[in-house]
Design a protein that fits this description.
The complex is a heterodimer.
Chain A: H1 9-12, E1 21-24, H2 34-43, E2 48-51, H3 62-67, E3 71-76, H4 85-92, E4 97-100, H5 103-115, E5 120-122, E6 136-139, E7 142-147, E8 152-162, E9 168-169, H6 178-184, E10 185-195, E11 215-218, H7 229-232
Chain B: H1 6-15, E1 22-25, E2 44-47, E3 51-55, E4 76-83, H2 86-94, E5 100-103, E6 107-109, E7 114-115, H3 131-137, E8 140-144, E9 156-157, E10 172-174, E11 178-183, E12 186-192, H4 198-205, E13 209-210
Parallel strand pairs in B: 1-2, 1-5, 5-8, 6-9, 8-10, 12-13
Antiparallel strand pairs in B: 2-3, 3-4, 6-7, 10-11, 11-12
Helix pairs in contact in B: 2-3
Classes of the chains: A alpha/beta, B alpha/beta.
Chain lengths: 233, 218
């Protein structure tokens, strides 16, 4: 019987090794798998390459992982935030490597990684600093930049409901990067609010088919998140 | 000469967005446009983080931080709205499905190059987000910005000196002094604020402009 449910966040992040590439879902705090990140910090893996849209807010979640000096490199589109002081300090001190990726490229490179695409041409960034050193091509009179896929050892994502096969549905804009990250990692780990019986999820509405998911752990949300995560602590 | 304030600029931009349009409003100044879209005109607001049909901010106490906009502020979803993931969201942008995007800028060049993501300061923490995708994807890119910097320099320039966001991507520029179209023949002045002559605007801007026009912008 297929059962991808594990009983603790500790079990969920077991085996994430030093030097691993880890994708982390979330757009700012929305959809960020905070409990899995905390478990990763506790687990001790270091020298990580992280893929996320941002580089952490405040002192919790991804910012805490950076502050614990576990991250060698981050691929993201928007590290600078009002409260990105943890990243800012590491960056200015030369203690973290940044690959700045336009958000659409980040999403499409991850999608390509999961979809077996070798490389693709995009008009985004053509003629800008972020295309420097990259191959370009004119196609139908328009400039394009060659971009390569991003794949990971692990993806840590957050969803709303899962069954034991790993089929997932999400909650509102907490969805964001998680479905594409789920496809692009060798081992996708998801924290979910609710576990349901097989067959309970409407097959027309499953956003991430279970084939992409390896480990599921339930982390119940006590209520609708009425405040930004770090404001609560 | 009374320069337009931010709300007046936003209202002017909103007037040019027709019923049924799909629109992305960039973070910062452009978000004000949402407050001035005429009531009863159905417009679909797209947010890069995966929603179409974005509604206004919720009432105090009703915020849901799983439902946020690109600036990470809580919003609502209108009836008919939908959620999708990031690759689909940017496919919508890059694939030319958004009719308009409204962006802020540091500079716009006479050919319509846009610079709005990096000040060029060596010590700046860089960040780009969805700006480059929006700049090349939307069918019409509107820039909404003050005409001059705080030091009185024109933000419309012959060639951008700040790092570029996109090349030849801007369609129209809305400032606190004028509305200008980017055309193959150069920057064409559509409207000026009352009390400002075309000659004075040309002098302030420092770039060849096509005109003159009747002052109707208010």
């Amino acid at each position: 019987m297929i059962n991808k449910i594990v009983s603790s966040v500790t079990d969920a992040v077991a085996g994430i090794h030093d030097g691993a590439t880890v994708m982390i879902g979330g757009f700012g705090p929305a959809g960020m798998p905070a409990e899995l990140i905390d478990a990763l910090i506790a687990q001790g893996a270091r020298d990580l390459t992280i893929v996320n849209n941002n580089a952490g807010n405040g002192e919790t979640g991804l910012a805490a992982l950076l502050k614990a000096r576990r991250v060698r490199k981050i691929l993201c589109s928007f590290p600078r935030q009002v409260d990105s002081h943890v990243f800012d300090a590491l960056y200015r001190a030369g203690e973290i490597e940044l690959e700045l990726v336009p958000q659409g490229n980040l999403a499409e490179r991850i999608r390509a990684g999961g979809a077996g695409i070798g490389a693709f041409f995009t008009p985004t960034g053509y003629g800008t600093q972020l295309a420097e050193g990259k191959e370009t091509r004119s196609i139908d009179g328009r400039g394009y930049v060659l971009e390569y896929p991003i794949r990971a050892d692990y993806a840590l994502i957050k969803a709303e409901r899962a069954d034991r096969w790993g089929n997932l549905v999400y909650r509102k804009t907490a969805r964001n990067f998680s479905p594409v990250m789920a496809s692009a990692a060798k081992c996708t780990v998801v924290e979910v609010n609710e576990l349901v019986e097989l067959g309970a999820l409407d097959p027309e509405a499953i956003v991430t088919p279970g084939v992409y998911v390896r480990r599921i752990v339930q982390v119940r949300r006590s209520s609708v998140p009425r405040q930004r995560a770090e404001a609560v602590a | 000469m009374n320069k337009l304030n931010r709300d007046q600029m936003a209202a002017r931009v909103a007037r040019d967005i027709p019923e049924g349009a799909c629109v992305n409003l960039g973070i910062g100044l452009p978000t004000l446009v949402a407050n001035h879209l005429p009531k009863g005109r159905e417009i679909l607001l797209h947010s890069e983080n995966g929603l179409l049909g974005m509604g206004p901010a919720p009432a105090a106490g009703k915020e849901d931080y799983d439902l946020i906009n690109a600036g990470k502020q809580p919003v609502t979803l209108l009836p008919g709205g939908s959620y999708f993931h990031q690759a689909d969201s940017f496919g919508m942008m890059r694939g030319g499905h958004l009719d308009f995007c409204v962006l802020g800028a540091f500079q716009v060049s006479a050919q319509g190059d846009l610079a709005n993501w990096h000040t060029g300061e060596p010590d700046a923490i860089p960040a780009v987000g969805g700006a480059m995708d929006l700049a090349i994807g939307a069918k019409n890119v509107f820039v909404m910005m003050e005409h001059l910097t705080k030091r009185g320099e024109s933000k419309i320039v012959e060639h951008c000196t700040y790092p570029l966001t996109g090349v030849r991507c801007v369609s129209r520029i809305y400032t606190d002094l004028a509305v200008l179209d980017v055309t193959a023949a150069g920057l064409k002045v559509l409207e000026l604020i009352p009390g400002l002559s075309f000659e004075e605007l040309s002098r302030i801007t420092g770039v060849r402009l096509i005109g003159p026009v009747e002052p109707v912008l208010a």
